[in-house]
Structure formats: structure tokens, C-alpha cells
Amino acid sequence: MPLSDELRDVAIEFHCPVCSYPTVRKGSWLRTVGSFKCESCETKVRIGYEDKLAIFERHLRKR
Ligand SMILES: [Zn+2]
């Protein structure tokens, strides 16, 4: 399953795996990013393709 194009302009919430702090970013950002820095615990979190799929899927299921 490819990363859905329909979420490009949608704000998607995901959580830091270390401290569970929620981060909200647009789908377009998520699709291209390889890692991000948690604003709370400052951990550099890697986001692989599988992680992105899981985040997108979770968001789609919530609607
Ligand atoms: Zn964190």
C-alpha cells in the first residue's frame, strides 16, 4: 500500500515512542521526513516507511 496522497494536506497526530508526547504534522511532511526531534524529550526519532504506513493507517481508521 502506498502512502496515501489524500492525507497530504491533512494534519496527522503521532506520538513520540519514548515519552508519548503528541506531534502534529501534515501528511506531506510525514511522507518525506526520515526522522524528527521530539519537542518534549528531544529524542531524535527515526521514522521509517513502515512507521509512516502505521501512522497513516491509524489516522484513516480514526475517521
Ligand atoms: Zn519524546
TrEMBL record:
Designated name of the protein: Uncharacterized protein
UniProt lineage: Bacteria, Pseudomonadati, Pseudomonadota, Alphaproteobacteria, Hyphomicrobiales
